[in-house]
Design goal:
about 80% helix, globular, about 450 residues, 21 helices, mainly alpha, single chain
C-alpha cells in the first residue's frame, strides 16, 4: 500500500479510538433511568456513573499526553484500546453499582490515551502521506467532536434494544478494530526514553503528577457538588494541592508540566482559555436544551435525541470545509469567524423563549453545528501550531481537559438556572450568560497570534 492510502487508513484507526471517549461520555446519559431501576439507586447516586468518567478523563488526558511524549504514542494508544476492550467485556458482569463506576473510570483512562497519542502522531502521519498537518488533524478532530453529538442517539437505540450493558459491549469491536488498524498501518514510534526503570520512574515527577491529578479531581468534585456536605473542604483541598503542584513544578527538573514555558507561551494559554469558554457555551446548549425540550415542551426522549442530531450532522459535513478554509486563510481568521458564528447562533437560541416548535429546534441545532465544527478544528490546529513537537502530547491532553472544564462549568450553571424550574424564561437567562461567554471568547480569540 502506498503512503497516502496507508496514512488515510491509519488516521481512520486513530479517529475511531479518539471517538470512544466523547461517545462514552455522552451516550451514558440516556441509561440513567434504567440503571436506577436495575441497581435500586436514587438520582444523586446514579450520576456517579457520569462523574467517574468525567473526573478520570479530565485528570487523565494530560497524564496520557505526557506518557505519549515520553514513551511513544503508538504503543500508548494500543495499550489504551486494550484496556477499553478488556474493561468493557467485564463491565456488564459487575455485581453492584460501585464496580460499574470503577469500570467507567478504567474506560475513561483507556480512552484518554487516544486523542493525545493521535495528536503526537500527526506530524509523522503528515510526513508519511505528504499532506499538511491540518488534514489528519481535521479528521481526528471531526471524530472527537461529532462522537459526543451522536452519543445520545446511539445510546438511546442501544439501551432500548438491548439494555445498558450494550453501552459497554459496543466498545469491544470498536477498540479491537482501532488496535488492528493502528498496529498495522500507523508509523512506528521514534526512539523515546530508555534506561533503567528506577531512573525513568525518578524522572517521571510522580509527586507532581499526583498533585496535579488530585487538585483537578478535588476542584471538579467541588464544582459538581458530588458530596454536598464537604463541598468547601474539597475546594480548599484542591486549591492547596494546586499550590503544592505549582511549587513542585517550579523546582523539579524535568517537570511533568513546565509552568515557566507554559507561562511564556501566550498563544497556547489563549487557545486553552478560548476553548474552555467555547465549550462552556456549547455545553449550555448540549445539556440545557434537551431538558427544556423534555420538560417544557413534553417531547419524548427519543424525539429529543433526533432533534439534537442536526448538530452532529452539520459538524461532520462542515469539518472538511473548515480544514480547507484553514489551509487557505489561516488559523486565526477561521477561528475568529467561528467564534462570531457562535455568538450569532447563541443569540438565535433566544427564539426558543417564544416557541419550541420542532422545525425551529431543528434549524437552531443545525445552526449551532456550524461554529461547533469550525471552532473545534481551528482551536485544535491553534493548539498544534502553538506547541513544540516534543510537548504536543501533554498539550493535547490539557486541551481536552479544557473541554471538560467548560462542560462542567456549564453543568453547574445549568443546575443554578434550572433550580427554580425548567422553563423558557430560565432558558432566556441562560442565553444571556451564553452570549457573555461568547463575547469573552471573541476577545480572547482576537488577542491570539500564531507562535513563531
Amino acid at each position: 500500500m502506498s503512503n497516502s492510502p496507508r496514512t488515510g487508513v491509519a488516521v481512520a484507526g486513530l479517529s475511531l479510538g479518539t471517538a470512544l471517549n466523547p461517545l462514552n461520555s455522552s451516550m451514558i446519559a440516556v441509561a440513567l433511568v434504567v440503571l436506577r431501576a436495575d441497581f435500586a439507586l436514587d438520582v444523586a447516586t446514579v450520576t456517579w456513573v457520569i462523574t467517574a468518567f468525567y473526573l478520570t478523563s479530565a485528570a487523565g488526558q494530560p497524564l496520557m499526553g505526557r506518557l505519549a511524549d515520553r514513551f511513544g504514542p503508538r504503543r500508548l494508544f494500543l495499550l489504551g484500546m486494550a484496556v477499553v476492550a478488556v474493561t468493557c467485556a467485564l463491565a456488564p458482569l459487575a455485581p453492584n453499582f460501585a464496580l460499574l463506576c470503577v469500570a467507567r473510570a478504567f474506560m475513561a483512562l483507556g480512552t484518554a490515551t487516544a486523542y493525545p497519542s493521535a495528536v503526537v502522531m500527526v506530524g509523522a502521519l503528515a510526513l508519511q502521506g505528504e499532506v499538511k498537518s491540518t488534514r489528519p488533524l481535521g479528521r481526528i478532530q471531526m471524530a472527537n467532536t461529532s462522537a459526543a453529538a451522536v452519543g445520545p442517539v446511539v445510546g438511546g437505540l442501544l439501551v432500548s434494544l438491548v439494555g445498558w450493558q450494550a453501552l459497554f459491549l459496543v466498545n469491544i469491536p470498536l477498540a479491537l478494530a482501532a488496535i488492528f488498524i493502528v498496529w498495522r498501518f500507523a508509523p512506528a514510534d521514534e526512539d523515546r526514553e530508555r534506561g533503567r526503570a528506577s531512573a525513568l520512574l525518578r524522572d517521571s515527577d510522580i509527586p507532581g503528577i499526583l498533585a496535579f491529578v488530585g487538585a483537578l479531581v478535588l476542584v471538579m468534585m467541588a464544582l459538581l457538588n458530588v458530596l454536598p456536605g464537604v463541598r468547601w473542604w474539597l475546594l480548599g483541598g484542591g486549591l492547596l494541592l494546586a499550590a503544592l503542584f505549582v511549587w513542585r513544578e517550579l523546582r523539579f527538573a524535568p517537570p511533568f508540566l513546565d509552568l515557566r514555558l507554559l507561562g511564556r507561551n501566550r498563544p497556547l494559554l489563549l487557545v486553552y482559555l478560548g476553548f474552555a469558554l467555547f465549550n462552556g457555551v456549547y455545553y449550555f446548549a448540549f445539556f440545557g436544551l434537551p431538558q427544556l425540550l423534555q420538560q417544557a415542551a413534553g417531547y419524548d426522549p427519543g424525539i429529543v435525541g433526533l432533534l439534537m442530531l442536526p448538530l452532529a450532522a452539520i459538524s461532520v459535513i462542515g469539518t472538511p470545509f473548515a480544514v480547507r478554509a484553514i489551509d487557505s486563510f489561516g488559523v486565526k481568521r477561521v477561528l475568529i469567524t467561528g467564534v462570531v458564528l457562535l455568538v450569532a447562533a447563541t443569540g438565535a437560541m433566544w427564539l426558543l423563549t417564544a416557541s419550541l416548535a420542532i422545525p425551529l429546534v431543528l434549524a437552531l441545532t443545525a445552526l449551532l453545528g456550524v461554529p461547533y465544527c469550525v471552532v473545534s478544528i481551528a482551536s485544535s490546529q491553534g493548539m498544534y501550531v502553538s506547541t513544540r513537537p516534543e510537548e504536543r502530547g501533554v498539550a493535547a491532553g490539557i486541551f481536552q481537559t479544557c473541554r471538560y472544564l467548560g462542560a462542567i462549568t456549564a453543568t453547574v450553571l445549568i443546575g443554578i438556572f434550572y433550580g427554580t424550574g425548567v422553563n423558557q424564561a430560565n432558558w432566556g437567562l441562560m442565553v444571556v450568560v451564553m452570549l457573555g461567554l461568547g463575547a469573552v471568547a471573541l476577545v480572547v480569540t482576537l488577542g491570539w497570534r500564531e507562535r513563531k
